[in-house]
Structures are given as C-alpha cells and as structure tokens.
Write a structure and sequence with these properties.
Elements: H1 27-33, H2 44-54, H3 67-73, H4 78-99, H5 106-131, H6 135-142, E1 147-152, E2 155-161, E3 170-173, E4 182-188, E5 193-196, H7 198-201, E6 207-209, E7 227-228, E8 233-236, E9 239-245, H8 251-264, H9 270-301, E10 302-307, E11 310-316, H10 318-335, H11 340-357, E12 360-362, H12 366-371, E13 376-379, H13 381-385, E14 391-398, E15 405-409, H14 432-443, E16 448-452, E17 455-459, H15 462-474, H16 492-500, E18 501-507, E19 515-522, E20 527-533, H17 535-540, E21 542-546, E22 552-554, H18 557-572, E23 576-583, H19 600-603, H20 609-612, E24 616-625, H21 632-641, E25 645-649, H22 654-664, E26 677-679, H23 680-684, H24 688-695, E27 701-704, H25 708-720, E28 725-729, H26 735-740, E29 743-747, H27 753-758, E30 761-763, H28 768-809, H29 817-827, H30 829-834, H31 859-885, E31 888-889, E32 892-893, H32 904-908, E33 924-926, E34 929-931, H33 946-966, H34 983-1001, H35 1003-1009, H36 1016-1026, H37 1028-1043
Parallel strand pairs: 13-25, 13-28, 21-24, 25-27, 26-27, 28-29, 29-30
Antiparallel strand pairs: 1-2, 1-3, 3-9, 4-7, 4-9, 5-6, 5-8, 10-11, 12-30, 14-15, 14-24, 16-17, 18-19, 19-20, 20-23, 21-22, 23-24, 31-32, 33-34
Length: 1058
Amino acid sequence: MGKGGQDDGKKGVETPISNFPAWARSVQECEAEFKVSAKYGLRSDEVLARREIYGLNELEKHSGPSIWHLVLEQFNDTLVRILLVAAVVSFVLAWCDGDEGGEMGITAFVEPLVIFLILIVNAIVGVWQENNAEKALEALKEIQSEHATVTRDGELIPNLPAKELVPGDIVELKVGDKVPADLRILHLISSTVRVEQASLTGENAAVNKTNHVVESEDIDIQGKECMVFAGTTVVNGSCVCLVTQTGMNTEIGKIHSQIHEASQSEEDTPLKKKLNEFGEVLTAIIGVICAVVWLINVKYFLTWEYVDGWPSNFKFSFEKCTYYFEIAVALAVAAIPEGLPAVITTCLALGTRKMAQKNALVRKLPSVETLGCTTVICSDKTGTLTTNQMSVVRLVAMGRWTDTLRTFKVDGTTYNPRDGKIHEWPSSDMDANLQIIAKIAAVCNDSSISQSGHHFVTSGMPTEAALKVLVEKMGLPGDCDTSLVDSDDILKCCKWWNEMAQRVATLEFDRIRKSMGVIVKSKSGTNCLLVKGAVENLLERSSYIQLLDGSVVLLDDRSKSLILDALHDMSTNQLRCLGFAYKDDLTEFATYDGEDHPAHKLLLDPSNYSSIETGLIFVGLVGLRDPPRKEVHKAIEDCRTAGIRVMVITGDNKETAEAICRDIGVFTLDEDIHSKSFTGKDFMSRSSNEKKSLLRQNGGLLFSRAEPRHKQEIVRLLKEDGEVVAMTGDGVNDAPALKMADIGIAMGIAGTEVAKEASDMVLADDNFNTIVAAVGEGRSIYNNMKAFIRYMISSNIGEVASIFLTAALGIPEGLIPVQLLWVNLVTDGPPATALGFNPPDKDIMKKPPRRSDDSLITAWILFRYMVIGLYVGIATVGIFIIWYTHGSFAGIDLSGDGHTLVTYSQLSNWGECSSWEGFKVAPFTAGARSFTFDDNPCDYFQTGKVKAMTLSLSVLVAIEMFNSLNALSEDGSLLSMPPWANPWLLLAMSISFGLHFLILYVPFLAQVFGIVPLSFNEWLLVLVVAFPVILIDEVLKFVGRCTNSSGAKRRPTKHKDE
C-alpha cells in the first residue's frame, strides 16, 4: 500500500502513492492489504490515522500567479520594452523642458501619455486572457462526487462528504452515483453493474464491471474491469467497493496534474515568436541608428580646440545635446509600429467572427493565426470523425425457406428517426417475421429518445436507442390501430408496440448469458418472452427459427450455419451484432403478472435466467456501428491536398478504429497498415527514436486504446519534431493533451466542461469538417496579417529613413514624435485593419502548410521595403527642403504664402544662423495664421518650419495610403488585383485622409500637432511627391515575379534533430 508507516505531523509531507495493483489481486488479498473487512469497514481511529498520511480526497488547489506577476509578464516583450523606455524618456524630456521655461503644455505630454495608454490597455488584455488559463482545473473539480455511502465501524453512513474518504474505506455504489474515488469492486449487489466512463477513456458505450481478478498487472484503464474510477457514473446496478486511491492519486487526479503541467509549458504562437524576433532585430537597428545619429551630430553640441596636437577647451551645449537626444527618441517612436498590437488583435477578432459563422468558436485569439500553420491534426474518433450515435446499418431477417435469409441495408447516421430509410423494404404490409423483430427491438429496450432543438438526445444504452430508431424506420403493421399513439410522437411506433405488449418482468443483462429478456403480456392476455443479445449465445439457446410467413420450424445445422455466416460477414466489417428471439411456451411464467405470482422467486436469482431463456425461436439479427460523418471523407482528402497529416487517437478497440479509418480515407481500403496502426501501450513500449520515426511517416496514423498519457506523449513528440499540432477531444481524458497541443479543439455538444476549458477552440457542431474549414480561414487570416505587418513595417522604415536623413543632412527636424505617433496609431490603423479583409486565395487549401519557422519577412521583401523606405525618407525630407529653397517645383507655384527662400547651405547650417550678417526673413501666412520674425530671424528655422513640417507629414500620410495599395498582394500587380478587390481598404484610406484633414483644419488639433492648413497647390505638390511610391513598388514586384517565375517551392520539412 506504500503507506510509509508514519507521519511526523508536519505540513507538506508528501502523500504516499499506493503501487498496489488491486485489479490484479483477489478480493481477499485486497482486504488484507488495506487491513479492512468489507462487512465492518474501517474504525474511526484508523480513518484519522490514514487521513494524516493521505490527506483529504480532493484535487489540489494550484494557486495561480499573482496579479502583479501577470502584469509584469506583459512587459516581457521586446517591442513593449522599447516603447516603455521611449515613453519614460519622452516624459522626462517633456518635464525638463517645462522646468527650464519651455512650454509645459499638453503638446509636450501627448506622446508619453499615449504610449503609456497603449501599454496599459495591452497589459489589461494580456492579464485578462491569462487569468482564464486555469479554469480547466476548476471545471475538473466540478465532476467530482460530493457524497458517498460508506461503511465504518460496522455502520452504514449514507451521506458522508466524499472528501473525507481514505484508502481502505468500504463504499456502496448504486445507479446514478458519481464514483467518489478509485475503487476496487468487492462484490456485486445486482446481477450486473455498468459504468459510463467515456469522459475518462473515450469508450462510446457504458462498460460492464465485475469483481473478477484481471490477469495482467500492466494493463490499460479499459482493461481494469474490476475497478471503477473517480468522476465516472454508475448507469446500471449496484455494488460494494474498496477505496484504493484518493485525491491526486486517482486517475482523475493524474489528469489534473497533467493539465497543470501542460499549462506551465505553454509556448508562444508562431506569430508571437516572429514578432519577438523582429523586436530584437529592431532593438539592435534602433541602437545602431541612434548611435550613428549622435556621432553625425556630435559636432553641434560638443566642440573642442587642438593645442599642441591634443584636444582641449571643450565646449558642451546641453540644449543641443537634449535636442539630438529628442531626435533619438523620435527615431525609437518612428521605428516601432505602435499600432501593430491593436491591428493584430482587431484582425484576429474579425477572424474569430468568421470562424464562429462556420461553427468554430475561438476561445483564445492567437489560436486563429496558429491554425494557419497546422501540420498535424490529432483527432479523436468517437463523436468527431463519427457521429457518436449508434446506428443500425444492416438488418438480417429470415427468408421464406430455411436456407434463405433477407438482408436490408439501413441508411442514417443519427438518432433522428427520419434520417435515412431501409432499402428494398416491402412496399406492402410487414410480414410476421419483420413484425416480431420490430416488437422485440421496441419492447426489450430501456432507452428513450427526445428532441432538443435540432438535436436528438438519448438516455440509456446507445445500442438500444439505435434499435428504437430502426423500429421507427420499419413503421407499423398495415392493419394496426394507430389511435393508440400520437402521430407527432418521434417514437410513435415504439409506443404502439409497448401498448400491444406490456412488460411485466425484466431479465437483466449479464456477462455470462450475454442477453436481456422481458416477459410481456399481450392484449389477448397471453404472456411471451422477448430476448435480445449476442447472436452466438442466442443461437445456442434457440431450438427453432421463424420464417417470413410466421411459421416456426426446427433450427437445423444448415440454417444455423447460414446465420453464423451472416454474423461473420458483419463482424469482419466491424459491426456490433445483436440477435433477436422469442418464446411463447413459458410454463410457470405463462400466467405471471407481478411480484405476488409464485414464479416470482425464480426471477430474484439471476442464475435462473439462462434456464428461462431456453427453447427460443430465433427471428433475425442486426448490425450496428457508430457511423462516420458523411462529410469527413472529403475533409480528410482536403487535409491531404493541403499537406496536413491526420492522426486518429482513440480509446476504442483497434479493429473497430481501423475499419472506421479505412471508411473515412485515413487509410485506403487495400493499404498495409501494420506499421501505421498501434495500441497506445504498444507505441509507448518503443524507444524514443522509434516513436519519432513512426510519427514521421507520410499519410495517416492510428493509435487505439489510448490513455491520457499516451495522447500527451504523442503531442509532445510531434511538437519536439517541429510540427504544429491541433488536437481534438471531448472527454476529461483529453484535457491534458488539449492543453499541451498548439491548438486544443474541444467538442461543443458532446464535450465535457473540462475539455472546453482546456481548449483553444470549441466546435459548435462537433464536426471534423469544421476544423478543416477553420484551418483554411486561419491560413487566409495569416496571409492578411502578413500583408498589414509588411505595410506597417515598410511605413516605419520610411519614418526612420526620414529622421535619419534629417539628422545626417543637418536640417531642422521635419517630423516630431507626436506626429509620428499619430501616423503610426491613427492614420495607419484603418488601412492596416482593412488589409485583414483581403479576399482569400482560391488555392489556399491546395498549398502545403507554411513552416512555423518560415520568415515573416524574407530577404527580398526586406530589400523592397528598404528601397520604399528610402524613397519615403527622401520624399518627406525632400519636400521640407523644397519649401525652404524653391519658389516652385514641377510647375507648381509655392510662393503664394510669401515665405522667404534660403539656400540649401543655409538650411543645412541653420544652427549658425546667429552669425549670418544681414539675414532677414519676410512674414508669411499659413491658413489664418501669420508668422513674423522681426525680433529673431533665426526663429524661421524653428517656429517658421511649421509649413514645411506640415508638408512632410502630409507626404508621409499620402505615401502610406498609396503604400497600403501596394500591400494588397505580396507580388501581384495592382493591374491583376485592383484596389476595388478590397473595398474596405478604399473606405479605410478615406477615413485616414479624413482624420489627417481633421488635425489640419481644426485649429486646436493643429496647434497640438504643430501643423497648419495647406493650400491647393501645396496639396498638389504632396500628391506629385507621394505617387511614385506605387510605380517603384510595381517595378520591384515585377522583378520579384520574374525571379520566382517557377513559383515559390516549399522547402521539405526538416525535423529538429536532423
């Protein structure tokens, strides 16, 4: 039991884990190991002693990171840190300017305050998202039982809080109970016990439990037939059990640990990794450019003379030093695409809306982008690839003669009775043989079906529900009285048969005879026994067969062989088969009418059931299965075309899973799959290199009888190999792998809350096809994100080039930080967001997935943007110089405002203005404002530069609008993808120009941004200078198309260890 023998009473003593294999030991050995008697239970003092060792029977409460820790984590990002430094420096400079008599007004503080606001919003969103990360663990606790019926000190305690259980406790379970801990069944009170453990194992039907010893110690959860596990539900029978594991040592506790472990190792999305890499490169570039700018301008704030060959008489100007420091800060602001986080969030949010329309509900925004580079989809079988709704697909009835059978194909994949039909069904009245099959299927049945919206919900065994659907498809006999049932009832046929034959006793199913029987009383008052069960077992207890016309003849070897051949044929197609039989001659039960009848005592002992069910008349059999979804086959083909591998990981048995995989196209019908289909246990027994080698195979793979740890291991190995993994699941057992995968996808209808909370995306329709559609949407969104990221980064390169050229040429500052911030955040925002609406490529799902380490910006794209950026710099600085030095340009008159022209030499040496003799400047007008420089003509290069600055800013805005048209396609010309291909972009450009006009022509805003209104001629000059950016990029695109005329070939996948 691994007790360790003692406890020092100190907090934090590690809970001992019992390695005792209770499933492989007899009841007596288990009682001896846990020092307990099933009849008496534990003594109160033993309970207290064991609680000291094992603690309470509850899952650990993992305290998540503190709110401050989460806040600080949001600043663990290179771009954010650069912004933070820029904001702090800007704030300090603004404060210092105010202290030294400068204008300490709103203008000086706009820039740092806006940057701080961006960082605060970013941190709030990040903290909110991460605060939801541990909800899967809370949902896991909700499926635990709260109470248990326990025997202690020889007394039965009916409602003991489940958390007080300890190993060795004796627990009684009955129908409807949630299992409170991991238990070893000691003995069955009822003839059978069935437990619904699909959420833990993935099995799509309730499993029978027994108290018999399992031969092997090393066996999967499904094989431990004498164990019941915490969180599962008893659906039939009652039993007495022994607690073997509690709290975190239970199977559900292990899943809890795995979820917590997986949540600690979550990785950044591919896009975030690339943006972080870009941020690091940007940091280096900014550092270099800032250093170069200072070196170029050091002569302006630090001078010295040489005496005897050594520098001396150093003169330092703090004012000019601060000025060039502000230029360095402007560089940082220009280089960082501040609007990028907001635009990415907006684009992803728009993507989630599109996906929601396709039934894919995205819980975590970055998942939208990650879907685009998914290379492997690990899918559960039950409920995702299949409907998780058992359906009868074949009905075999007796023929007119003893050597003939009739086989009917049954359509339909759901519990909707109107879904599908029976082929070659008799157009006239049902014959006697088909009628008795319908009667047995309807009456020897404990399930029910109800309609909830568009869904059909069942209670009871899925196989029995499928039989009821079959009865509805069979219809009613032609001469029946339909007044007994409601014509709108979805189970009207079943109701009619139950009216005709009312049940008076039930012979419950057990594992020995493998059948269930009911004694029914007909309208005429006679009793009849109806039986359904395993075909071989029914045939052994049958003496007769019923033919098509209702006549009963002896079951001979030929007829038996014919039925067994039909059974073999269906079994090889992985159909679950059920046979039907009845008996009219009931001897002592012929007049049975309830518990007061003398024969009732025979029903109290299940060992009598086999003798009652003898001398049966066999009537037919059906083949059932959990059918594949209709659209899955095409979705698998789409995945293959898109270069995405599909791996099926299921808790179901190997043969059934292989048959389904062949049906849906994961494997071809004649494919040799001995190296592609494994049980979880077989896969785990191999070496690490063998596992990786198997996972690298082309085509589909299948893993059956998989446990949670197997799923996690597969996901871990795939991720280690550089794959981007999407994992589907619906059960508690899937939660750790969902958490660990790059994209965890939970089922919305059949999924547990645990699975949903651990996932990144929820399928509203539980359909595999929806995943494939979402991958296509993810690829489209990524392409659009690349478009606006390229657009924003190219614009920022232009801004950096502009500031660098300004500093290098020594002319006055043409763009101030607050203007750059406005352009980056507001003016660039609408076009960048509109690029997220670019129409998807038609062949988007015919291309292989991109590699997660593919460059966001290739060397050629970077070169293109350096050329464009250089032109932006030349244009913005050029128009600044033109205004100061030219009265007209390209035939456009610029002298209307009366400003004074200077030479380029004067402009580049404006700092020496005070030493120029006879330098005078005439007044000029800008909008409603007049500027005079009688007191200090040198102010012409400071306050007088307002018109030149406005022209520079307007050229920058215009160029960036034209550049957004360039970003419509990475290599396609505007002739092949015209601007109206994305009308949202044209609207966004209009909004951006409108915002620019707003700050130009509203006096208060114009003062904040340090600009003035422009005349018509000046706007004409702006457009003439800005438009060539389209022509330049068209030439560069043409060169790009020529060098890549054969099309971009995707590099073969390289694994990390190759």
